[in-house]
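Entry 12.
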Amino acid sequence: MRRTALLILILAAALSACQSGPVQIVQSKWQQAFHPCPAESIGDFPVWSADGARIAYSSDRSGSKEIYVISVDDRVSRRLTHVGGSGATPRMWSSDGKQLLINSQYQAGVINADGTGWANMGFPTAAVNGIWSPDSSHLAFITIVGDRPNYTGSLFVADANGSNPTLMFSAGWLSDPAWSPDGKQIAFQKHDVLINKYRLMIINADGTNPVQIGDQFLLVENPIRWSPDGHRLAFQSVSAELDVINADGTGLMQLATVAASDYIWLRDGSALVVQSSNYYGDRIELVSLDGTIRPLAFLTGGHAVLSPDASKVVHVSNKQGLDDLYVMNIDGTDKIRLTHNPGYNTCFDWPF
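Predicted 3D structure (tokens):
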């Protein structure tokens, strides 16, 4: 009888609390410490090693954008940096695959491929278009000072780690340095801001004999690509033209009307594999020097980057709602998933 009376009293108290307002469920500090954590985000521009065996990419899986390296064969990722803050992003592999040129904490730097030997180059990332020479013995980079339209761009060549910079050329807005395959020349863009015209320039690697190649063009700041034999250069114009010109300034050819974001020469120099991006995805096409265009693949849900030999493409795909890396042939066949995004896992923060 007493137990029945006690149960009735408890039920009456509960009913009274419900009538006076919603029941307040109070979580302890330990319960609040568990919460959904965001899915991993992968940077849009992974970087292939020269031999195509490894890919460097940035990921925020640790809470900040850090650089990871994954082997295409064994699909194992290894964390390279531990910088925190604004994080780090990869820019370029050395030709021997032993080092990476990276951006970190608004600075350019070099790090060994095993994560050791981090060295800050000491100049701002925002002012640098850094690129190693073909043998990775020197670094060409551009700095920009001043405000529009009174920019002053300067092209420097330094040791591989950025030390001992030597001024090669200075004038206007400069961008997109590109070493010739033999490392003896550097092509770059010079922008005459007042007339909004770009000039394609070539200079010897020792700073002598700067020459304008061809006429003035409405170029965009996309890469300048030397052909494997060093006889031609490919570039993109504002009017969505992919053009090729001889290194001596003759033989200008409009290959295709395509808004290309990247283009890589085939090893025999007979054609370029061209990647163009829009809202719907990435289109991969083969453009021959006679202007013939052959569609290869169309990739949706992310961003694609061509391998150095133009035989494969790495695709940052979020088609499933989560970022992951995929590698495939340039025609879209033999697709391999490299990473496995864990998605929205449970995170834990210490409550005290």
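Annotation: The chain is about 5% helix and 45% strand. The first helix runs from residue 2 to 20.
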